[in-house]
Amino acid sequence: MPRCKICKLKFDARFFNQKTCFEAKCVLEYSNKIKIESWKKEKKVLKEKLKTKSDYVKELQKQVNYFIRQRDKNKPCISCGKPLIKKFDAGHYRSAGGNPELRFEELNIHGQCVYCNQHLHANLINYRIGLIKRIGVEKVEWLEKKHEPKHYTIPELKELIKEYKLKNK
């Protein structure tokens, strides 16, 4: 004999795949539960449809920052050399606002203590010194030169989000 999904009592099923007993409160509660679950699924689909390009950029930035924090968690701050403990930022050498084409470039983003990134405005002189030690002068010069503007499409952003989610696992 099956058990009612709501009251957990055993009941004599009259229909194939019957989930609840015939008590009115159990049937009503189960139907409400099903409605709520279907609404949650529908709401998720609707939210996805309403996302703008900037929503996808924010989501990708979260994934990239998480990746950088995982990559650099055992390294010192790129600017001051202090150990990165608990909370630290994924700081950009070339700012994301001024250089949107380098916003998601991994060579441009490194683990940085909150003080250097937020209070010293990236501590750029020391950031450059640390960057040369970490990636070499040729790559730093490549970061510093002018780049072609990059305009991501929503499908490209979705693909990058998928890639970083896989990298983050």
Structure description:
The protein is mainly alpha-helical. The protein folds into 2 domains: 1-50; 53-168, no CATH class. The chain has 6 helices and 2 strands. It has helices at 24-50, 53-71, 114-119, 124-135, 137-144, 154-168; strands at 89-92, 109-112. It has a two-stranded antiparallel ribbon with strand order 1-2. Helix 4 packs across helix 5 (137-144). The chain is elongated and about 75 Å long. It starts with 23 loop residues before the first helix and ends with a helix.
Low-confidence stretches: none
DSSP summary: helix tally: 6
- Rg from Cα: 26 Å
Helix content: 40-55%
User: Which structural category do the helix and sheet elements fall into?
Assistant: mainly alpha
Order of helices and strands: HHEEHHHH
- Ends: how far apart? 43 Å
Number of domains: 2
**Overall 3D form:** elongated
The count of DSSP E runs of length 2 or more, i.e. the number of strands, is 2
Major sheet strand order: 1-2
Instruction: Give the biggest beta sheet.
Output: 2 strands, antiparallel
* Percent of residues in β-strands: under 5%
Overview in brief:
By secondary structure, the chain is mainly alpha-helical. The protein has six helices and two strands. Helix 2 packs parallel to helix 6 (154-168) and helix 4 packs across helix 5.
Defining key terms:
single chain; 169 residues; mainly alpha; 2 domains; 2 strands; 51% helix
